[in-house]
């Protein structure tokens, strides 16, 4: 067992609760996978949405995020100084989601809101690129404090499914690696739709559960991140978007659907030195092949499902 999985299996949820399907409210589901934290991933028998059942309570999640989510106690940022690495990412414009945002919209003179903004690195970049107003929402007070203090940003501490902003107050809303974390995705999408102006854009990305259909329990997406509560694919995500008055502009598939062993090696490969390539040719060649597949525009079952949605014009 590698350090990732052994660390995760020691995380015990003390309070969980049974829920109805977060998208359609149906009460029957079938279990498709049992996670390392002993919670199940189930599929709704009415709408096929896949989610965790039972779910950790709000207080439990708060405890999880407050206990070192961004300072490395949980696997997500293990052994890295999160805030330091983000500062470097801002300089090189490599903050998660930024290139995708630049590719699909222009932030100049726009009102820009990032959900799950952590220290607000995306907000810093949006401000540099001329956004008229930038604001963020973050569940973890450590990260929010850092962003306010170091970058002078407006960051509200709350969960993203209750937005404390007035109707139609933003032109662009982003959520990278966020929608799979929230307890009430249906409410989140309603809130995004409410806060977006007519014709406004909602961009983001989340793990693509279609990888599970191919890889099953091998897929790293179900092996780690026990804080993930929802497992989206393009079908369930479009259904959710449409229900909230958002239409799908595009889906894009990014990354590589690594299994557990490849992931471990992939982590070890960073940065990709010549020596590492020579030592682990299987992982390196796998990545090269995946990149070729992207070039050939035959994307299928990538790790990340990226989306651009637009609020239907009123
Ligand atoms: Zn359902």
Structure description:
It contains 13 helices and 13 strands. The protein is of the alpha/beta class and about 325 residues long. It has one domain: Vaccinia Virus protein VP39 (Rossmann fold). The strands form three sheets. A seven-stranded mixed sheet has the order 8-7-6-9-10-13-12, sandwiched between helices. Strands 2-3-4-11 form a four-stranded antiparallel sheet, with no helix packed on it. A two-stranded antiparallel ribbon has the order 1-5. Helix 3 (about 80-90) runs parallel beside helix 5 (about 120-130). It has helices at about 5-10, 60-65, 80-90, 100-105, 120-130, 140-150, 185-195, 210-215, 220-225, 235-245, 260-270, 275-280, 280-295; strands at about 15, 30-35, 40-45, 50-55, 55, 110-115, 135-140, 155, 170-175, 195-205, 230, 245-255, 305-310. The chain is about 35% helix and about 25% strand. Zinc ion binds near residues 21 and 26.
Give the key terms.
alpha/beta; single chain; Rossmann fold; 36% helix; 7-stranded mixed sheet; 13 helices; 13 strands
Précis, in short:
The chain has 314 residues and is of the alpha/beta class. Helices cover 36% and strands 23% of the residues. Zinc ion (ZN) binds at residues 21, 23-24, 26, 44, 46-47, 49.
Helix and strand run = HEEEEEHHHEHEHEEHEHHEHEHHHE
With strands numbered from the N-terminus, the spatial order across the biggest sheet is 8-7-6-9-10-13-12
Number of strands: 13
**How large a portion of the residues is in β-strands, by DSSP E?**
15-25%
Can you count the helices?
13
State the low-pLDDT regions, or none: 1-9
- The backbone outline, from C-alpha atoms, is globular
Largest sheet: 7 strands, mixed
CATH fold topology? Rossmann fold
Cα distance, first to last residue?
Answer: 53 Å
Alpha-beta content class: alpha/beta
